[in-house]
Amino acid sequence: MNSPSRARGDLRIASFFLAIAALAGTATPFAVAAAMQGYTIRASVGASGFEPRRLSAPLGAVHFVVTAREGDHCFAIPTLDVEKRVRASGPLEVDVFFEKAGEFPFLCCVHGSDSAETGVIVAAPAR
Predict the structure, then answer these.
(1) Of 125, 123, 118, 101, whose CA–CA distance to 57 is shortest?
(2) CA-to-CA distance for 94 and 92, rounded, in angstroms?
(3) How far, in Å, CA of 95 to CA of 62, rounded?
(4) CA distance from start to end of the chain
(5) pLDDT tens digits for range 14-31
C-alpha cells in the first residue's frame, strides 16, 4: 500500500505525463485526469428535473455522465462556465475540474425549463 507522500509523488509524475499528452494533442488534461482518478458521477435529467438533485464530488477532475429521460436538455454549472447539451439520443459525457471546496449550483438551461430542473454539486476534499 502506498504511503500518502508516495501517492502524492505518483500523482506529480502522472500530472507531468498528462501535460505532455495534452501538449501533443493526444488527450485533454481533464479527461485523462478524470480517467486516472476514476471518479464518475452519473445523473439524469427530464421534465421533472435532475436525479439526483444533490451530488457530491471530490476536488480535482470529475467525469460526469448525464442522460436525458425524455427530450433534449442541458447540463450547466454557471460558476464554472460549463454549459453542454444533453441529447435524448445518447448520454452527455463531460469532464469538470473542481479547484476549491464549495457548493456549485447546476441547472438545465434549455428554453422553457423551470426551477425544478436545478441541483447542487458539493465539492469537498477526498477523505
Answers:
(1) 123
(2) 6
(3) 6
(4) 16
(5) 444 444 445 445 445 544
